[in-house]
Design goal:
The chain has 90 residues and is largely without helices or strands. It is built from 2 helices and no strands. The mean pLDDT is 77.
Length: 90
């Protein structure tokens, strides 16, 4: 979960992770000094001689989106999805 959701949980009185759950998650921060990306607004355009090769060419579109929240099935009956979770947009 993003930091803003974790801060909201703390404000609601949720305890910090402890016991078995405390050591199972890690956050890694990396400084990126340089990066590159191959970005296309249209279909890729290969050289004509490349199409004589027996290899696949194309695009694999990848999308990331937040779906509907799913509880863990062990909540108290009157506990619903908090607004900061149901309103989350990526």
């Amino acid at each position: 979960m993003p930091d803003r959701a974790n801060r909201q949980r703390e404000m609601e009185g949720c305890a910090q992770a402890h016991g078995q759950g405390a050591g199972h998650h890690r956050v890694v921060a990396l400084e990126i000094e340089s990066a590159s990306a191959k970005v296309h607004a249209a279909a890729p355009k290969d050289n004509p001689e490349d199409y004589t090769l027996p290899v696949w060419a194309g695009v694999l579109p990848i999308a990331e989106q937040a779906l509907e929240p799913v509880d863990d099935g062990k909540l108290l009956e009157n506990v619903g999805v908090p607004d900061y979770i149901s309103a989350y947009k990526r």
